[in-house]
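Team,

Forwarding the record for the chain on the shared tracking sheet. I've put the sequence and predicted structure together so nobody has to dig through attachments.
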Amino acid sequence: MVMLGDISQSSVEPIMKRCLVATAFLSSVFAAALVFAQRNYLPSADDDIPQAALLTERGAELANRLKLLRRAEANLGNNHPSLPDVRKQINAIRDQLKATAPEPNPFRNRATDVKRAVPKMNDDELRQLVILLVDDVADLKKRVLALEQQK
């Protein structure tokens, strides 16, 4: 047994084990609390940022500014005097980011309906459909020419 002054090695080992267990416990609690805070309290800045906005330099700048403002909003108290101004800036940036989002495709549902119907058609039905579509396209071209001549 090695003596270190008045403390023996046998009395230090249980203390060291307790310290290691306490350190491991506290670090796991801290990690869990951090994950919980990120998921539940800190709003994700990517929730309402359209992917199309991130493709442009201006959109990326707005997204970064939105993230900073959201962090500021999360850190400020409810009675902080600048909180209303921060929220106004957040809403303004959200509106700007929404303006960069592409318009939804009005024909998207029709395309999926056709995809569902096509496997149920045989070759003759598909040929008839193509012929009808060619006629419809020709009629539309005539209408466009007539409208352009009216202008």
